[in-house]
Amino acid sequence: MNGKERIVSALNLQPVDRTPVWFMRQAGRHLPEYRAIAAKHSFWERCQDADLCSEITLQPIQRYKHIDAAIIFSDILTPLPSLGYEVEYGGGIRIDPFELEDVDDWIDFSARKHAPWAAEGLKAIGEKTDGSLAHLGFVGSPWTIAMYLLSGGTGDKDFHNARAKVFSNPEKAHHLFQTMGEIVGDLLADQVNYGGADAVQLFDTWAGLLDPETYRTFAMPATQKAIEVFRGKCDKHVPVIHYAKGSAHLHPLIRELDVDAISLDWRDNLALNRQQFGEKFAFQGNLDPSLLHGSAEMAGRATRKVLQEAGDAPGHIFNLGHGFAPSARIECVETVLRTIVGE
Prior knowledge:
Layout: H1 3-11, H2 32-38, H3 43-48, H4 50-63, E1 69-71, E2 87-89, E3 93-95, H5 111-114, H6 117-128, E4 134-140, H7 142-151, H8 160-168, H9 170-193, E5 199-203, H10 212-233, E6 240-243, H11 251-254, E7 261-263, H12 270-277, E8 282-284, H13 296-310, E9 316-317, H14 330-341
Parallel strand pairs: 1-4, 4-5, 5-6, 6-7, 7-8, 8-9
Antiparallel strand pairs: 2-3
């Protein structure tokens, strides 16, 4: 089997010849070849130029044997510049001021017209590869994007002020979340219809901040809206992967969403999830990313433990419990991959 066949089969709970593997943030800061490009081009140039975007996306594929999927180099805040908010990176994230009333003045968003870059990068990847890799698209969830927008970036630790604004203005907050759900659903559909993505992932990084009742009230309906819009606009059925860091207490609700796979963080019990829910969902994960910063031997042992916990039943994709950090060691990544393929 090739990488695309492994990824798509695993997401559809079908047998594979070995465990498929890709890594969150695999294209990026831990690679010297990425840092060389970053030194010459701004972050948004890297995202919005299809040639640069596709080159960066394929860098980990060219460096590492055995990775089965290329995930587009993009960002969860991709729609914000098109909505009128400048987003700056470097020493954190800075976003132009936003008020809940602003939503009424937003454009009638179209991914193809206003934020086509991820889809165009995916299409460029398709033109540069032979079809043996799975191509993955992604977006940030409405809740997570809104946390950054309400906070003006990353200055509000744990988004206390952002959440207070939501809880103090529930009707306006719902309007924000539902509108953002329509936007990110359209972004995802564009990555499939124009970009040719074989699967997509929703990153709800900050959902874990919420208790179940608050999640059901605010974040979950917006995620449902995004998936509904995506399904309605897609010209074919494409698997959806859901990731939310620190969200074990929300998993009973997340399993109510129209998703095909759940990506677990390193604190989640992979074996238990597979045993209890593996007949309905594929599961992705869940190596602790910190294990890529130490010895290669330790990374190999931890990889074998994840594979053991996942078991042999169909429906497991090896990944990290969160993304690569800049100081991840290439030697550790190579050891993880060799362990997965049995070399």
